[in-house]
UniProtKB/TrEMBL annotation:
Biased composition (Basic and acidic residues): 121-132
Keyword Cell inner membrane appears in the UniProt entry: no
Organism expressing this protein natively: Actinomadura livida
Region annotated Disordered, chain positions: 112-140
Protein name (record): Putative membrane protein
Length: 172
């Protein structure tokens, strides 16, 4: 392996470590802040997803440069395909984050106050689930579809990253 190949490998691994970790953490923690109706943190997680999603393209670019003429290898083709599918799924997560933040802001305007943090708990029902989330029209059902879709897609994307990692370690 030449010096330039070592540099490319270093950049490929560095981008993978420093972009996929924060990206996965941001997408997987988003449903929690949708449930808490914390628009400030939700906007921050949306921005983190955008920034790290774009910078994760560096992983693909440096990996492609490392592969050079070995694109006929099945494991490389599978890894690149999984990576592209994961990026498309992240676009869906990004869209749902944006939509959930908008829905929560609209709901806060209708209520007359913009809750920045968790909703205050009732003294009698502190720590109890009152079942309001299942009742249509209650405050807890805002962005419920987006929350579920983000949770599911984030888990699938995290599994894709693990499969790609296993393919790289096994065959690299």
């Amino acid at each position: 392996m030449s010096t330039s190949d070592h540099l490319l490998l270093f950049l490929h691994i560095g981008f993978a470590i420093f972009t996929l970790g924060p990206l996965t953490a941001a997408t997987m923690s988003t449903p929690r802040y949708i449930r808490r109706r914390n628009v400030v943190v939700l906007r921050y997680l949306h921005r983190v997803t955008q920034i790290y999603g774009v910078t994760s393209l560096g992983i693909f670019l440096f990996g492609l440069l490392l592969a050079q003429g070995d694109l006929a290898e099945v494991w490389l083709s599978a890894s690149m395909t999984l990576f592209i599918v994961a990026l498309v799924l992240l676009l869906i997560v990004e869209r749902d984050q944006r939509k959930a933040a908008h829905l929560l802001e609209v709901a806060a305007e209708k209520e007359g106050a913009a809750p920045a943090g968790p909703a205050p708990e009732d003294e009698k029902g502190a720590g109890k689930d009152t079942g309001d989330a299942a009742r249509p029209g209650s405050g807890d059902d805002i962005a419920q579809v987006e929350r579920g879709r983000i949770a599911a897609i984030s888990g699938v994307v995290a599994l894709m990253w693990l499969v790609i990692l296993l393919l790289m370690v096994w065959n690299g």
